[in-house]
Write a structure and sequence with these properties.
mainly beta, 28-stranded parallel beta sheet, five-stranded mixed beta sheet, 40 strands
Length: 669
């Protein structure tokens, strides 16, 4: 019986078929092929919550299984494509990424999404997840999400609107009207459901919500009317929006929401000194119930202490869970962009967290210490998901301003937290500090002894990371249970006059102190591109001593088992030291421009001589004639960086084998 594969058709399209064998012939018309096809893949979907008020954040989990030979661990090896039934684009991303700004798609074993509005007709959103194992028919699973209309949840006088100018046009029907925030808060005090809306285009002071009794309550702080987001202007004290709704797990609010605000503080990272460190935080959830669902949507935050503060200390005994942030920009902070001592079950999607060009390092915090990085969880709990984000860090470590040792883009510490925490990174643009243990994805102990470092489950998929001038290795993956795929790691040309060295592209950072279980969990790095563009004596992965060495990807051999393969290694400017075979031509056309062209250090001006060339932000996809095309053997990603399904290649099209690197060029139709 012949089998057919149809491309370019939708379910229900009419296709005419004909067949001939010897003197016999026949024809038929198939009007539909939407019947389900059996597959041995299984997928059970769940979520941190399935119902709540818009804007509604959640984390979705796919628990999969397959008997395919390729699948050693389903969490890593089965690749999932999510669709949220919620079309649209993010507008808070700093640049248009290689993979686009679509907010309706995600990838990975875990996904996160914020549903900004209820579905028309008050219907449920149907989230689907298609699972691929590279061998069997994909499996599609779905889960329904109920997003309630805030105008219904906070009907009538459960909503208070505030306009100092007494302009209440566009206010929800029946809302109570006030000219001050304090009067509106008094009106809403004690209500099960309370919504405080500020007039668009007006400027306000702090919003402090203190409501500590009762369970199952909801509080919403947002905007009404047309025009620009309402501005919350901070001084040296008083947070932008803060919640004191009970720090424990019982008796806490069910959900709190902050949406559509422009929160501005007085801090300026480009002129900061240690005397300017009294700026308050933009949004403070540290006294919110640790299990309360906390959603931030479509906010703009700048010039603050911390952008989002979920807990105030590094060593906190109760993890802040259930935090979701979408379509939000945080710029120009003193302490951290997003911070919690302990935390988990967090999802960040479509967000930009960045310091401005010309940031002074080693100045802003007490004692002349540096400002901190974009993100930190001191001890990891549950699952943290990053989906389509743009983070950049040019802040020095405390006491290291002279060494230009940039802080992590993401600092996620596993030690002394919960057993088997999860980290899923899906479409992430990083720039500045390394993508390593201590300088991008930090997996250290957060204050505990290194022997207690918890093993984790980590999937990093679709990353474009540009390393700034910085000593060390990139990426550095010290924890077992880690998979990196579809990543582009770029080392740009060194700054003139710098003597900072660079070691392996890939290393473990030493596995001895990483805790029981880490070296026994499989590590895999495949379908990535490692690009070294330096022209000076440091090119070609020299060690810190600048002695010659061959270009290599370091070693993760201490992990048993492990796999490193089907990666592009590109060092076009390497002058000595045993350059590898060049896999040119590669696509070096710029896909988006970097935001940063220089940093300002103590007693120094902005280095205007430093500029990225187009190739630094290129995709580095193989072009016609590249030796990477069709060269992959063994394990590859099933879905490439652009979302193309590589299993189509493996299924017997013109090119029988997939390509090395994170892109599958020129898929045949």
């Amino acid at each position: 019986m012949p089998s057919f594969k149809f491309r370019g058709f939708e379910t229900g399209d009419t296709v005419s078929l004909s067949a001939a064998q010897g003197a016999n012939s026949d024809s038929a018309t198939i009007a539909s092929w939407d019947q389900s096809v059996s597959t041995p893949i299984t997928n059970t979907l769940s979520a941190t919550r399935t119902e709540g008020t818009a804007p509604f954040g959640t984390i979705l989990l796919a628990d999969t299984a397959s008997p395919a030979d390729r699948v050693v661990h389903p969490y890593h090896d089965i690749e999932n494509v999510w669709s949220f039934d919620d079309p649209g684009s993010f507008d808070a991303l700093g640049n248009t990424p290689i993979w686009g700004d679509d907010k309706n798609t995600a990838y990975g074993p875990r996904a996160t999404h914020v549903f900004a509005t209820p579905k028309p007709g008050n219907e449920d959103y149907t989230v689907t997840c298609v699972s691929h194992d590279g061998e069997n028919v994909p499996h599609t699973a779905s889960i329904d999400i109920k997003v309630n209309d805030p105008n219904t949840v906070f009907a009538g006088s459960d909503t208070a609107v505030v306009s100092a100018a007494s302009n209440f046009s566009g206010a929800p029907s029946g809302a109570a009207q006030f000219t001050t925030i304090s009067a509106a808060r008094t009106h809403l005090s004690g209500r099960t459901n309370a919504r405080l809306l500020l007039r668009a285009g007006e400027t306000f002071g702090s919003v402090d919500i203190s409501e500590t009794s009762g369970s199952g309550r909801r509080y919403y702080v947002g905007r009404f009317g047309s025009g620009n987001r309402p501005i919350i202007s901070l001084g040296t004290s008083g947070n932008g929006v803060s919640f004191n709704t009970g720090g424990g797990g019982s008796g806490a609010f069910e959900e709190v929401i902050v949406s559509g605000l422009d929160i501005r503080g007085t801090y300026d990272a480009t002129t900061a000194t240690s005397s300017s460190n009294t700026t308050a935080d933009a949004i403070n959830f540290s006294n919110t119930g640790r299990n309360t669902h906390k959603t931030v949507w479509d906010c703009r935050i700048r010039g603050v202490g911390k952008g989002i503060r979920l807990e105030g200390t590094v060593a906190f005994s109760q993890a802040q869970r259930n935090f979701y942030m979408g379509n939000t920009r945080i710029e120009n902070w003193l302490d951290y962009g997003v911070f919690s001592g302990d935390g988990g079950d967090w999802g960040l999607s479509g967000c930009t967290v960045q310091q401005p060009t010309g940031t002074i390092n080693g100045q802003g915090k007490p004692g002349g210490f540096a400002d901190h990085g974009p993100f930190r969880i001191s001890r990891a709990y549950g699952c943290v998901v990053f989906s389509n984000n743009d983070f950049s860090s040019f802040n020095s470590w405390s006491g290291n301003s002279g060494n230009r040792v940039f802080q992590p883009v993401i600092r996620w510490n596993t030690g002394n937290g919960e057993a088997n925490p999860e980290l899923v990174i899906d479409r992430f643009r990083g720039e500045g500090g390394q993508f390593t243990t201590y300088n991008a994805v930090q997996n250290d102990t957060g204050g505990g002894p290194t022997s207690t470092r918890n093993p984790a489950w980590i999937v990093v998929d679709r990353v474009h990371h540009i390393l700034s001038d910085h000593p060390g290795n990139s990426p550095n993956i010290p924890l077992g249970g880690t998979t990196l795929r579809n990543c582009v790691f770029v080392v740009p040309n060194s700054r003139a006059g710098w003597s900072i060295g660079f070691r392996n592209f890939l290393d473990t950072g030493g596995t001895g102190p990483n805790g029981a279980g880490n070296t026994s969990r499989r590590q895999e790095v495949y379908s990535c591109a490692f690009i070294d563009l330096r022209t000076d004596a440091l090119s070609g992965n020299r060690t810190l001593s600048n002695t010659d060495r061959d270009y290599d990807l370091g070693g993760i051999g201490a992990f048993t088992p492990h796999f490193v393969g089907n990666n592009i290694e590109h060092t076009p400017r390497m002058n000595t030291g045993g350059a590898p075979s060049d896999q040119s031509p590669l696509d070096t056309n710029a896909r988006y421009a970097p935001l940063y062209d220089g940093e300002r250090w103590t007693n120094s001006s902005v280095d205007t001589s430093r500029g990225y060339s187009d190739e630094v932000t290129a995709s580095f996809a193989p072009q016609s004639g590249s030796s990477a095309i069709g060269a992959a053997t063994g394990k590859v990603s099933l879905l490439d960086m652009a979302g193309n399904l590589r299993s189509d290649v493996m299924a017997g099209l013109t090119r029988a084998t997939p390509s090395a690197g994170p892109f599958e060029p020129g898929l045949e139709s």
